[in-house]
Design goal:
By secondary structure, the chain is mainly α. It contains twelve helices and no strands. It has one domain.
Length: about 300
């Protein structure tokens, strides 16, 4: 049994349930966010989520801005800008394609990063599985019911941003460890996304109910899973953590089905499972690849 650190009066969960709850929380938050699109739009919803999550993290971690070094600023700024771009492009993708497929396509970024530079045949297999999944998802025709190509490309771009976010997050953690680095990075995420949110007119549409829903999105997609994953990573091997995170595309698909009534075809379900299997396999066999972090 792992006891809470001395001097802390928080609650703890076993590591595997903590990660699973974090996965459900993130995708539940994404489903809730998509439900706000008809009123606030994708940019407005993303802006509300990022700004509220930033305020929460600033209150919790209270980063010492005046004591940051030049190296710390140079690490935090690109991290935050990429994080804001990732969230905006992903939400824009969700206006065009189902949640489960959006998360599946986004996962390609971390997967490619995990196997980048490898020359082992087994890692090549994971790339082939993921590529086959993308082929199954990609709209090859303009037939009725086909996926929106722009939505697919936006989700893939969000995945590329996610891969960059992992690299930049590792760099930030080395020069500014702990939650303070994430909090200051989120400030620049807010600055990156605010112009789009303001241009969408979302501020004029805000009501107490919508603000509460936005706060729920910020908590479910940021504060809660971030806390749960940190709790799990104290005792859970990173390889096991990464394999559990590979469940996200399937969980997102179920969330989309239950809360958004988004139904996938059998072929699309197969694509989700292929990408999830490829992500889990790459994590299992990777030598030094980091697990995908929380989408703050």
């Amino acid at each position: 049994m792992h006891e809470a650190p001395a001097g802390r009066s928080g609650w703890t969960l076993p590591p595997i349930p903590a990660v699973l709850l974090a996965v459900v929380s993130v995708q539940g938050g994404a489903a809730l966010a998509k439900g706000l699109f008809p009123v606030l739009g994708a940019a407005g919803t993303a802006g509300l989520r990022i700004v509220l999550a930033t305020l929460i993290l600033l209150v919790v971690f209270r980063p010492p801005f005046t004591r940051f070094t030049r190296a710390q600023w140079l690490a935090a700024i690109p991290y935050g800008l990429v994080l804001g771009t990732m969230n905006l492009s992903f939400y824009l993708a969700l206006t065009r394609i189902p949640l489960g497929l959006g998360v599946t396509l986004e996962f390609i970024g971390p997967l490619v990063l995990a196997v980048a530079g490898s020359r082992r045949a087994l890692d090549f297999l994971w790339v082939v599985l993921a590529a086959f999944g993308i082929v199954l998802i990609t709209p090859w025709s303009a037939r009725p019911g086909a996926l929106d190509l722009v939505g697919v490309l936006l989700a893939l771009f969000a995945g590329a941003c996610w891969a960059a976010y992992i690299v930049l997050g590792g760099r930030l953690s080395r020069v500014l460890p702990g939650g303070a680095g994430v909090a200051v990075g989120m400030v620049f995420s807010s600055l990156a996304i605010l112009p789009f949110a303001l241009a969408s007119g979302a501020v004029a549409k805000l009501s107490p109910t919508l603000f509460a829903a936005g706060l729920g999105v910020a908590l479910l997609s940021g504060a809660l899973p971030y806390t749960l994953e940190l709790m799990a990573l104290r005792v859970l091997p990173s390889r096991t953590f990464g394999i559990l995170m590979s469940l996200e595309p399937a969980v997102a698909t179920l969330m989309g089905l239950v809360f958004l009534h988004e139904h996938l075809s059998p072929v699309q379900w197969l694509a989700v499972l292929l990408v999830s299997a490829a992500s889990a396999g790459a994590t299992l066999t990777a030598r030094r690849a980091p697990p995908p972090p929380v989408e703050a």
